[in-house]
Amino acid sequence: MGANKATSGPGGGNNKTYSSSREIGLMNQYKKPKQRIIDTQKDKNEAFKEQGAYNTRRSINKLPSFLPGAALLKALSPKLQENSRRTRKFFTDKVLTDPRGLKNFGVNKKQFESLSVEKQNQIYNKYITTRRENKTDGYGTVFRESGNQVVQAPPVATTMPTGTPTEVEISQSEATKAEDPIELRKRKAKARGRSPTIMTGVTGATGSLTLGKPSLLGR
Questions:
Q1: Rounded distance, CA 117 to CA 111, Å?
Q2: In this predicted model, what pLDDT tens digit does every residue of 40-67 receive, in sequence order?
Q3: Do 166 and 99 sit in the same domain of this protein?
Q4: Regarding beta strands 200-201 and 149-152, do their DSSP bridges make them parallel or antiparallel, or are they unpaired?
Q5: 96 with 171, same domain?
């Protein structure tokens, strides 16, 4: 596997890439045409998946041992590398196969895989940077501010899951929970007290009406 050799060959030393498209091409150039196509694509997929893990491993390994927290980061390095692989897999397998991903990035999964490793990383780096800055959602849709609420723009109604609460609904729900329960009961009691007057006319009560029993405020 060409990409696997990158940790000690193409990806070693001061090289910032796990494996480049040129390196992959050179490693597969003498194979039969059909096998070369298969292996090249396989190596490209591997190179993209491992780029983030390689960056993490390379950065943590460079930390001086006397630096506070360095030992902890080195212990967490395998976990952080695996998280990077999972995030990249989500991007290719979920984001780029969703209509929102196609709209936001201009390519689907198949088109993305046909690009050079360098171009793939360029697209992904833009996705993950804006995601970390909380400017976009998990599918690359840009957030915009509307008053005190954060909403998505543009909306994609055809792909939004049904039954999912919006940001506004969540805020309203939290506001209701935070309301003083005594005041809430008073408002409900007042609302019940007004209901009999709905049947009155301009000249007062009309028809045969039965008044409810008086009740104490707050009950």
A1: 12
A2: 999 999 999 999 999 999 999 999 989 9
A3: no
A4: unpaired
A5: no
